[in-house]
């Protein structure tokens, strides 16, 4: 019986020590008020879903280390349960850009704002916008630019996203030695966060070329590049 008691007492500190190691190995989730997406949420709704008025909501988002949305909940409601559920479902089907701490991916917890506006009349034309930034248009006309996009960034945006006003987004970014765009930052937003994020995503998935000379060999590491894009309501006229 004495041996059994000694064995029981000696097992306790080992179990406690093992639990401590497991906790210290886990990295805390990254908290942010502005989530970056690799696949942006795309809620599909009709004018009748809004019940004759514009709506807005904030969705709290939980994503794992791989960017998969594991949970989404309503932080601020649109006032309509079915519309809230539609937004939550759209977020669950999207993907978050992972956050890294010392080259280790961590979970992300943050918020996504949605502005849902009554669209135009059914017979009105809805314009689609391509990525026609100041730098892209200049390089298409053979003008001298500090960099050039290897291909036109892919942008999915229509006139209903402008909320009835012309919009401008100014941004900066950095690139790695391969010309891959990194760290896109909005310097002047459009006033619509969703629109800004669509521009950020388009630029984030692009590549650029910089004319390499003896004085610009350092540019890939240290320089920031800037560009801007304007969206006008009369685009289709």
TrEMBL record:
GO molecular-function terms, A-Z: energy transducer activity
Record's keyword terms, sorted: Membrane, Transmembrane, Transmembrane helix
Membrane topology qualifier: Single-pass membrane protein
Principal subcellular localisation of the protein: membrane
Superkingdom: Bacteria
Residues spanning the membrane: none
SUPFAM superfamilies recorded: TolA/TonB C-terminal domain
Gene3D superfamilies, sorted: 3.30.1150.10
Annotated compartments: Membrane
GO cellular component term, pick one: plasma membrane protein complex
UniProt-listed PANTHER family: PROTEIN TONB, PROTEIN TONB-RELATED
Protein name: Gram-negative bacterial tonB protein
Species, as recorded: Acinetobacter bouvetii
